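Standup notes
- DV: blocked on the single-chain target, sequence here:
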Amino acid sequence: MQRGLASITAIVAWAALALQLGLLIGEMTGGGASVAEAVWRFFGFFTIIMNLMVAVVASAMSLRPASALAAPKSRLVTAAAIVFGGLVYSVLLRAIWQPTGWQAVADHALHDATPVLFFLTWLAWEHGGLRWRDALWAAAPPLAYCVYAFARGTADGWYAYWFLNPEALNATQLSASIVLLTAAFIIVAITLIAIDHLLARRRNSAVRPAGQSASRSL
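- DV (later): unblocked, structure below
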């Protein structure tokens, strides 16, 4: 069941990414841009990076569950990233963006389906392998993306998000955006670790009585 759910999650994530890439290429080339420019723009969005993480990690969980990509820390970081992204989109962005047609399909797949599916996959997997300090690993994706976004913006002048645009914000505002974004990821990771500990305790309490009764019968 675990690997089957991971397979479904991986398939949905890869399909959503492929659909969104195809739509973006069609839109940008229709406006005179090249395919290379469209692909470059595609990989500028944090949503895409998060869903790519989900696709890769879910694939590893399905095909190579003993690999490092399917390890507890990797699952935690990916779950924190995609859950946070889904929450932010639902709370802040959904009301101002109302796509139609195939773009709506891609939008719901990237922002609704993959967060829910990966969270369910994460819940279904083994628990008890996380420590509180592992929450710090959740800071890696936002910090790495900030560096990446600034490097891209310096090269071509385009920034995917206004709150990470040094041309629109001063140094204090930009620093606040980075700190708040990183802190939010860590808070989500701490919540997931708390769930991990709770599920591990429930599993252990369910196993222990059976083991105790078996030992008494010997």
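- Follow-up: The chain is about 75% helix and 0% strand.
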